[in-house]
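The step that takes the researchers longest sounds almost clerical: writing a folded protein down as plain text. The outcome of that step, for a single protein, is printed below.
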Amino acid sequence: MKVLSVFFFQPQTDANICATHKVKSMQLKLTAIALDALLIEGLIKIVVMVAMPVGTAITLIPSWLALWHTENKGIAFSALATLPMWMISLLTGLLLLGMTWYVYKKVVLKSPVQVVSLALLLAGGWNNWLDRTLTGAVTDYIAVAQFPVLNLADVFISEGCFLLLAYTLLPYYFTQAPLAETESQTPYLDHETQTVMCASDVAKLTATHPVQSN
């Protein structure tokens, strides 16, 4: 709850809303959420592996929901399960490394929805990769109706994709500070991140290019 309260209700001081600090703050929040999600799913998988032998099923809602410990030696829906485990781990690891690098180096973080979606994608992907690499298979335990058995990491990935798609298609509804509103507050803007520049940056810019008053 503390992480969520800091994330959604952090005071909007100059250091928080300026372009440089906002980018770093967003990245820290993304990292915190991703690590929390990765740790939670990791602990759940450990409990399942210790308490439920492979093949064990516990019915929660008849014909609808059950806990069923299975192992997936491939990727999604057991695809590529015939490939050697080291090859699957190598390929998925390289893909995750590229995705992580792109998120932290190239993506401009503007909205909590964007941050949460990317954090869930990274957490789900890295959790399944660690599970597969360390144990030789991905632990699945959620059986819903006739769907293939999945785990919480799969849910993270699905929800992350859904939120990211919603943010991409409807960015106006998820961006905290539209540029049109910010322009009325100050002439000093970072147009890429749509955030107010830091006071120190404004001072440097004013020294070299003074603002002309009307």
In short: The beta strands are 57-61, 65-72, 138-144, 189-190, 195-196.
